[in-house]
Amino acid sequence: MKTGLRKGQLSEYSAVLPDELFYMFYRRTWYDDDQINAVATFNMCRDRHLFVAGNVPDFWDLDGGFIKRVRFYIYITERGRAWVFQQENNPFTRD
User: Fold this and answer.
1) In this predicted model, what pLDDT tens digit does every residue of 65-78 receive, in sequence order?
2) Which of 69, 68, 3, 64 is nearest to 41 (CA)?
């Protein structure tokens, strides 16, 4: 059956759950090949409407450029309880 996808390529609107998301985007290092490839991959995920989820110990330690691309973030206070936040598109407030 032909799907039009390359080998190993996910279909549109699939989910991507990367391991070590914290290490991929802790601080921007422009010369690091792994980080350059990770940014390129995330740009392709956005273009194909893929859902990307990962966990980090402290969300605010991530690179600022990466944080601006996050639409929702979830703070889990304890097992079974979480707060979901949505970024505001208001030019007068900072999330």
Assistant:
1) 777 778 888 888 89
2) 69
